[in-house]
Amino acid sequence: RKTNMALALGTVQLGLPYGAANVHGMPSEEQATAMVHYAVQHGFNSLDTAHAYELSQERVGKALQCLPEGLSMPTVVTKIDAKIASAKTPEEVVELVDASVSNSEKLLGLKPLHTMCLHHWGQHGTSLHDGVAWKRLKEHKANGKFLQVGASTYNPEDVLELLKDPDTNHIQLPFNLLDYRWREAGVPEACAKRPDVTIHARSSFLQGILVSSDERWPARFGREMAENYIAILEDLVQKCGRKNRVDLCIAYARAQPWVTAVLVGAETIEQLQDLVSLRDNASPLTAEQVKLVDDALPRAPPELLNPGKWNEKTSFAGSFQSGLLGPKQ
Q1: Is the Cα dihedral 162, 307, 265, 272 positive or negative?
Q2: How far apart are CA 18 and CA 22, in angstroms?
Q3: Per-residue pLDDT at 281
Q4: Other Cβ atoms closer than 10 A to 319
């Protein structure tokens, strides 16, 4: 499955101000083009975008149309408009899927599109009008509209369901060194049985909080939890001989044999240059170091692993002190 423990470029930051730790906002169109060109020039052979990322598809498309001579066209993964979740009838779902596909073709300037995904398997997959959106994607693939189909997922159950479908080619999932859910659900073993499926892991930094100061952590979880996790991560940086927490997080994700590529995003070309440097000059963690990380980190509340729940009202302040967070195993 894995040839070079690759990084793939997530482009949500090129289309809108994104992430809890984003301090730079959205780059200009010129900066976005320069970032795409730099990424392709430095071995990012896959770009990830989506209808929901506002200007992202348009900017990626413009950058690819003026790709410097001698550079190979990267694989582009995009996603269907998330508004299909509100469709009242199967027919309306099909209309919205078709319109989204046409829009992506136009904005990206690519025919056929390489990989088209549903944006949220739990909301747009088999549960939506008996899976009509998924069926429509597979029909378009059969007719040559795109080469691969897949979905973005949010939990292990979604991934295991997709892996059972022989038509699945691509799965995106959130994964970082706090996230024990995939291991406990047997996802690595299930992925090993489907080496034909590309697995892209996003959220290595958990929207940036794993590599930021405690002020950037969601207030719901309390300053104490943030300080404790940061202290443990900093200790692991030293024990694993890493440059910093960014290096640790990427090296952990790259060490997973079931992950094809780690999706990383950047707000500036300088951040992208730093990521390239880390990829080129630092190896993934060893199996022993991965176990060291797993054993050292307290079990995170599931709500911390899902940014969609960060603004809910239940407080986790004091969880470290009260012992609510136990070891992972």
Answers
A1: negative
A2: 6
A3: 86
A4: 19
Angle between helix axes 245-254 and 222-239 (nearest 10 degrees) is: 70
Listed residue (195, 201, 197) closest to 177, CA to CA? 201
What sign does the dihedral 145-175-156-22 (CA atoms) show? Answer: negative
* Cβ count within 10 A of residue 301: 18
Which of 27, 23, 30 has the alpha carbon at shortest distance from 54?
27
Query: Residue-wise over 29-46: b if at least 16 C-beta within 10 A, else e?
Result: eebbbebbbbbbebebbb
Token pair belonging to 151: 């979905």
Cβ neighbours of residue 139 closer than 8 Å, sequence gap 6 or more: none
The terminus-to-terminus CA distance of the chain in angstroms comes to 27
Residues facing residue 117 across a β-bridge = 79, 150
Mean pLDDT by 10 residues, the chain (329 residues): 68 74 74 95 94 92 95 95 94 97 96 95 93 97 97 96 97 97 97 97 93 91 94 98 95 96 91 91 94 96 91 63 41
For residue 7, which amino acid is it?
L
Which residue carries 């909080």 as its tokens?
Answer: 209
CA 90 from chain center: how many Å?
29
Instruction: Identify the pLDDT of residue 23.
Output: 60
Are β-strands 198-202 and 261-264 bridged in parallel, bridged antiparallel, or unpaired?
parallel
Three-state SS for 298?
Answer: strand
Contact 84, 115 (CB under 8 A): no
- Planar angle of CA 216, 218, 224, nearest 5 degrees: 85
CA atoms within a 13 Å half-sphere pointing along the CA-CB vector of 217: 20
How big is the CA angle at 294 (ends 292 and 297), to the nearest 5 degrees? 100
